[in-house]
Predict the 3D structure of the following.
Amino acid sequence: MTLTDSLIVVDEHIELQAIDERFVHDLHQLIIKNKEWLQHFLDWPQYVTSVEQSRQTAQSNMLLHQRGYAKMFVILKDNVLVGVLSFNSIEPTNKTGYIGYWLDQDCQGQGILSASLQAFIAFYAQRGDVRRFVIKCRAANIASNRVALRNGFILEGCLRQAEFLNGEYHDQNIYGRIVTPPSK
Ligand SMILES: CC(C)(COP(=O)(O)OP(=O)(O)OC[C@H]1O[C@@H](n2cnc3c(N)ncnc32)[C@H](O)[C@@H]1OP(=O)(O)O)[C@@H](O)C(=O)NCCC(=O)NCCS
């Protein structure tokens, strides 16, 4: 990893900023605001309680970001934190990145996540760090499946009962998109 990857400009309103101490307060507030809703889609929100705990999670993600094993960005729209877009993990040898995301419930339906995802993919493909981009989402998560399809991912299969959520094991769709860097 040569160039810094702390900022990805998406357009004149949206930017992705690598997770940093200065975002902890707003990120924690946004999780608490959306906790009940997010719990329908993700397992971890139920475990978020104190801001101190959010700070510790942010700090471990900062380390992983710097080392290239994961990448966590907050999504800012007109300088307001509205969501998160990440590589939950990166396999450096395979140049494969597993993507995760969520938005403030009030900011859905505007294309914010899709625009962010396109810029994120272009950025890491251009650097040559990642060429296989993967989204794994519950088969029943309609909005997330639509994100994958809207952004050029191909459904590669269904992983049976691969995701534990709210007391049950759910089928998970796996989507892939291959992007090779432009030849120099
Ligand atoms: C998954 C999630 C991020 C999708 O959010 P989203 O706003 O639907 O995603 P997009 O940015 O792709 O926006 C697409 C929507 O905006 C609309 N839109 C408006 N302007 C748009 C534009 N300029 N470009 C693209 N879409 C636009 C689209 O029509 C679409 O709405 P529709 O699905 O009702 O047709 C959100 O539902 C979420 O946070 N869910 C909970 C967490 C979660 O499930 N995470 C994924 C776990 S695998």
Observations:
- The chain has one domain: 7-178.
- The pocket of coenzyme A is lined by residues 38, 41-42, 101-103, 108-114, 137, 141, 143-144, 146-147, 150 (CB under 6 Å).
- The radius of gyration is 16 Å.
